[in-house]
Amino acid sequence: MMWYDGGWGWGGWFFMAIFMVLFWALVIAGVVALVRYLAGSHHGHQGGPPPSSGEPGWRSRRAEDLLAERFARGEIDEDEYKRRLALLREHR
After folding, report:
1. Per-residue DSSP letter, 91
2. 3-state secondary structure of 16
3. DSSP class per residue in 22-85
4. Hey, CA dihedral for 72, 77, 78, 80, is it positive or negative?
5. Which residues of the chain have pLDDT under 70?
6. What angle, 0 to 180 degrees and rounded to 10, lies between the N-to-C axes of helices 78-90 and 58-73?
7. pLDDT tens figures, 52-69
8. Which of 19, 26, 91 lies closest to 59 in space, CA to CA?
9. Are the C-beta atoms of residues 36 and 47 closer than 8 Å to each other?
10. Are 67 and 81 in contact (CB under 8 A)?
11. Are 51 and 58 in contact (CB under 8 A)?
């Protein structure tokens, strides 16, 4: 009987094992990155620390910021912006 001795031998198995470990590490890292992106952990995050809930009036300031953003984007006109801003400041 003749044995086939033209392959990589044990070195082939070693490289295949390393390749499989690297492959699965990349797959797992990709899934983790995708989940973090879809969960929005940094999606749309603006700089600076979030306002503390214990600070008085932080919600009204955030509402004013949102209103100003809508005005800047052109979603509302100047009259509506002023009317809603006055309403927000009335109920502080």
Report:
1. T
2. helix
3. HHHHHHHHHHHHHHHHHHTSSTTPPSSPPPPTTSTTHHHHHHHHHHHHHHHHTSS-HHHHHHHH
4. negative
5. 1-9, 41-60
6. 180
7. 555 555 555 788 899 999
8. 91
9. no
10. yes
11. yes
Which amino acid would we find at residue 50? P
Matching residue, tokens 């009204």: 60
**3 state SS of 19:** helix
Task: Find where tokens 């052109």 sit.
Answer: 74
Beta carbons within 8 Å of 9's beta carbon, 6+ residues apart: none
- pTM for the whole structure: 0.38
90: tokens are 């009335």
Residue 86 to residues 10, 21, 60, Cα–Cα distance (Å): 78, 62, 11
Residue type, 40: G
76: how many CB neighbours lie within 10 A of its CB?
A: 15
